[in-house]
Amino acid sequence: MITKDITIEDLVDDVPGAVRYMMEQGIKCIACGEPIWGTLEEAAKEKGFDDDTIEKFVVDLNHLQENPPEDPAGGKRIETKSMDD
């Protein structure tokens, strides 16, 4: 079960689609290369979210954990080629 005290690292490991969901909510630095340390609550408060909104995140993320998307990347794939191609 997801709580506001889950670490970002555990959230990303435990919930398929968590990165996409959090980016859609405005917590974009999960995937921008800047590391986020701490909990979901700390990351959300750093971005200016109030307690009610954080509770909504918890509810939504628990739903996502119970009903993971078929493709956590949302169908977006980046094709890469080796330099030998």
Automatic annotation (TrEMBL):
Residues 62-85 are annotated as: Disordered. Pfam families: DUF1858 (PF08984). It comes from the Bacteria. Residues 73-85 have a biased composition (Basic and acidic residues). Residues 2-54 form the DUF1858 domain. This is Hybrid cluster protein-associated redox disulfide domain protein. It comes from Salinivirga cyanobacteriivorans.
